[in-house]
Amino acid sequence: MSTFSNEKKKMSAYYQAMYDPIWTMAINDLAAHYDVEDIVTYFHDDIFLESVKAWQKKNDLVDDGLFGRKCLDKVMGIYKLPLIQVVNTKSIKIRGEEVEVDFYVVRDRDMQFGTHPSTFNVRQSDPRMVVWHWDVCMSSVGCFQTLLERNLSIHFMIDADGTIYQTLDLGLQADHTKGFDSQSIGIEINNPYWVKKADKLEIKRPLVEEYLPNNNGIQEHLGFTAEQEKSAVLLASALSDIFVIPKVLPAGHYPSMRDQSGISTRAHVGKIFNGHVGHYHLQPDKIDPGTLLWPVFLHSGFKAVEPFFKAEAE
Q: Does residue 214 contact residue 265 with C-beta atoms inside 8 Å?
């Protein structure tokens, strides 16, 4: 038996595994690395405890045998997560059920790593809004790691090659837009944004110049790929059909408050919109995902409408 005190055992991998499905998955992955079949049975064995310590030391972690946040992050890095047991399927997960769609979605089999345990909140009603973000990361994998580090989460990500990842069951609310999480679906579309990153990209992107939302001036930055635009339309249309979310975008009421396609370029604080919106429509300090997606959506049949409605308190 290990010599851990009872207090330390409460912080140990054994106890984490008993009470938290996310930790169970990561810990069992580590156990498999050491050919240990049953983590609960073997954790108190001194040989396994020393193996954990040796693994921690090898990976520049405190070798105390306790499996905490840093150990989980290290496991995730080693096994190239975000997706542990990858499936590529024409379906999305909603409240544990498979719902068919007309395009491929990549996710892990058990949907365990979409969020931190603290943000496992079950929806009380269906979402009525889809919020679009850009990630300012080199890839969707990098985006996912950043979200975890910041204790945030998202339902979908769209990578540079158009790959759609589902990282959270749609029956759960993601932690992505303060004040609107319970009412919305969150999507991160990959875009490194900064022009200086263009030479480091495997998939080339257009350089664009636009007047950024919320009065942030003209800026040259990286745009979206054609594959991303196609995937964005497919995903947006499917979510609208499944949840009866209108295929509409918020129109700008005044010429100074809309882009060339007529979509609003300003935040509407304290209000909600039944349809598709940018992150910047809901928070005045945001600019993502810019205005480049809106003409693509309008060309595919979406409409520009107003007004916004007063949001319900969360």
A: yes
